[in-house]
Amino acid sequence: MATYTLFKPQPLLFTSSSSSIGGRKKKKSVVHVSATVNASVASPANEEGRLERPRWAGETPLPRLVGTLISFKPLYSLMKLGARRVLISTAEKSNVPWREMTRQILESDVYQELETVSNPSVVYPDYYLKPFHAYDEGNLSWLAAAEAEAATISIAIRAIPTASSIDEATQAVRGTWLNTVEQHHLQYSGNSAVHDILDIGCSVGVSTRFLSDKFPSANITGLDLSPYFLAVAKYNERRKPMNKPVRWIHAKGEDTGLPSNSFDLVSLSYLFHELPAQATVNMVKEVFRLLRPGGTIAVTDNSPKSKVLQELPPVLFTLMKSTEPFLDEYYLLDLERAMREAGFVNVCSVLTDPRHRTVTGTVPL
Q1: Would you say which domain of life the source belongs to (predicted)?
Q2: Which of 5-19, 151-165, 280-294, 316-330 shows the lowest per-residue confidence on average (mean pLDDT)?
Q3: pLDDT-derived band at 169, boundaries 50, 70, 90
Q4: Which uninterrupted H or E stretch holds 43?
Q5: pTM
Q6: What's the CA gap between 350 and 344, in Å, rounded?
Q7: Which residues contact 20 (CB under 8 A, 6 or more apart)?
Q8: Phi, psi angle pair for 225, to nearest 5°
């Protein structure tokens, strides 16, 4: 059994202030989901399967059959509902208070943050306007934003089902990701420090907070295409500040508008499986432009070679694909090759937990 030495972040705190929804007054409530655990966390072995990618992904008969089923709208609606129920029930059985966390956000004063983070000049690409994650509006809704943190915590639970607590699962997933990123930067950056970090696809700021805990002296920018997610991120930061104030930016990851050579580390967590392949390639090129010489790109996402993912039961992978329209493109894309073609060197891919890989690369010195 593998054992990892991990950092110790601060507990996560979820609160809701008194508010009125539908004429009903709600009292203030607090939910604690701690991310603090012992320094050593046990994890099941990170095993690769025998295939380059799961049989249910790509252009073979099985994924075509699944695609045909999903394209039938009445059946798709049932799949989408089923996928959502599975996500929520699985989370709550693992003590993730999904509905309570969602309620706290929706009944808070988060709505006032939307105008402060929205960029009215943003033009949404077509792929972002498609339904996914069982939301008809995709990430452009308050419900998706309110549920994002619970969904993110659930990623760790699914990855480490043998963990004794949410905290232990979170540490096994997030801790190994951050340690892998740090080790890559130390090895290949030419001793350059991490002063400026960009978190692309930051969602509601969960990954941003972990980066802040790992690199407490760094200036961090969180960028996302959903103003609703950014509003929740800013609201959460207002309730519990990070080590340094975060700059939240509403923009496309493939066209950020940020200055070239302005970051030492760019992180992209659980983002690329949500994108068409061309958007991913364009984003990798944009990251190369944004990083300074010796800078590090760090991608963490589903691993095509994960034994766990390759052996998913048909019902589960069908439900999953019903909420992820670009999953086949993600598994067919050679990400490491795309990174090298963009100019990155020292490209490394590590299975950092049973389901996920972390792929890192360096801008030449």
Answers
A1: Eukaryota
A2: 5-19
A3: very high
A4: strand 40-43
A5: 0.85
A6: 16
A7: 26
A8: -90, -10
Handedness of CA 12, 17, 20, 24 (dihedral sign): positive
| Strand bridging mode 291-302 / 356-362 | antiparallel
How many Å apart are CA 175 and CA 284, to the nearest integer? 24
Query: What does DSSP assign to residue 32?
Result: E
- The residue type of 113 is E
- How far apart (Å, rounded) are the C-alpha atoms in residues 64 and 57? 9
274, 270, 271, 288: which is closest to 338 by C-alpha? 288
Residue 35 · residue 14 · CB < 8 Å: no
From the number of C-beta atoms within 10 Å of its C-beta (0-12, 13-18, 19+), residue 280 rates as buried
Q: What percent of the chain is modeled with pLDDT above 90?
A: 66
Amino acid at 333: L
**What is the phi-psi region of residue 201: left when phi exceeds 0, alpha when psi lies from -120 to 50, beta otherwise?**
left
Burial of 42 (0-12, 13-18, 19+ CB in 10 A): middle
Structure tokens at 75: 């059946």
Q: Give per-residue burial for 244-268: e unless 16+ CB within 10 Å, then b.
A: eebebbbbbbbebeeeeebbbbbbb
Neighbours of 91 (CB within 10 A): 23
> What residues form DSSP beta bridges with 48?
306
Give the CB-side neighbour count of residue 301, counting CA atoms within 13 A: 22
| Burial 187-222, CB ≥16 within 10 A → b, else e | ebbeebebebbbbbbbbbbbbbbbbbbbbeebbbbb
Condensed to tens digits (0 to 9), the pLDDT of residues 128-154 reads: 998 888 888 999 999 999 999 999 999
